[in-house]
Amino acid sequence: MEAFNYRDGQLFAEGVALSAIAERFGTPTYVYSRAHIQACYRAYADALAGMPHLVCFAVKANSNLGVLNLLARLGAGFDIVSRGELERVLAAGGKAERIVFSGVGKTRDDMRRALEVGVHCFNVESIEELERLQQVAAELGARAPVSLRVNPDVDAGTHPYISTGLKENKFGIAIAEAEAAYGRAAELPNLEVIGVDCHIGSQLTSMAPFLDALDRLLGLIDRLAERGIGIRHLDLGGGLGVRYRDEQPPQPGDYIRAVRERLAGRELGLVFEPGRSIVANAGVLLTKVEYLKHTEHKDFAIVDAAMNDLIRPALYDAWMDVVAVQPRTGEPRCYDLVGPICETGDFLGKDRELVLAEGDLLAVRSAGAYGFVMSSNYNTRGRAAEVLVDGAATFEVRRRETLEELYAGESLLPE
Ligand code: LLP
């Protein structure tokens, strides 16, 4: 589905004109579509109907309380990687028993709290973590449900910074060592082995690496069964790509059907941890043109959103579509769309053909995932507002940060 469409010469989020949102909430502002998030979540949940499953939204992709609350109401589970994400999910009405806890650096405190609230599963990333979890669970007199995150050594064919399933990555336990690690986990009295987990990377645009990883994990599950270690669920992580420009990623339904075919005859539940494919195209970053600056070599549109608001172009050289909210007629010029931050890397897009005037509104598309969550206060800029649109209604799900808040926790030196 497409939640952001032009009508009467201007871009709408569902039933609300983005120009009206800019007027009411100012810019820069992230705008999300409830219907889009719902449709993407359901594409996963519907394809998994009739078998034990959890669709655990990867909170790191968009951790706004309103977004999490919407997903919790739809019955989603959550994939978390920190104590902070755990508290957010609980505050948003998420159920502890639908949480999987990933991440290579879980602290004792993280573990304790997750055991207290009763998460569904710890995705354990090393033998050292296994031993620590055993200790913490024993102290609490609890039994910790675990999966080991196995690194299947497949090339996800994606950006090196977001590729995680190769053996040189810091993530998971090498598949060659996984059997021994499971043997150890099964010996530890305060752990209960329930699953096998992997996550091979993000923004994958083909199914082959997922299925390759799946085959390797099924082989492992068979070898574990021979050792008497039963596995109840297989967690395939997140990673399904989205269309930013002209990518043709598989649809969640097609991907899940292919996975289910390979599971035929097995009694295995499935867990997925999608982030981007649920929220990326459900969001735009709304920004205003402050200046048009024409130099001998380049035309710049200086906008009021910057790399502190949306770092993907600067960090990954990611291409994100930028469109005019109320397109003008006229001769387009080729603009670099840059922010006010004092860095050459502060750009949202380069060489974009647009007809612009000062004060125009632009929308950076596909900004619902890894947008606001990666924003910072660099250059002492307050973080953007976040707004969720539902039909003709608009909810401010995070107000714009005030300048006072930016240094509220700081202090002057004593006299
Ligand atoms: N599960 C685990 C263990 C992960 O590490 C990730 C993402 C996900 C699930 C969700 O993956 P997704 O479905 O969103 O691809 N900041 C980067 C993306 C980093 C992804 C990190 N891990 C970006 O802006 O492209």
TrEMBL record:
Residues involved in substrate binding: R276, R312, Y316, E343, Y370
Annotated residues for binding of pyridoxal 5'-phosphate: G239, E273, P274, G275, R276, Y370
UniProt feature coiled coil, ranges: none
One Gene Ontology term of the molecular function aspect: diaminopimelate decarboxylase activity
EC number: 4.1.1.20
Chemical reaction(s) catalysed: meso-2,6-diaminopimelate + H(+) = L-lysine + CO2
Entry keyword Secreted: no
Modified sites of kind N6-(pyridoxal phosphate)lysine: K60
Pathway where this protein functions: Amino-acid biosynthesis; L-lysine biosynthesis via DAP pathway; L-lysine from DL-2,6-diaminopimelate: step 1/1
UniProt subunit comment: Homodimer.
Protein name: Diaminopimelate decarboxylase
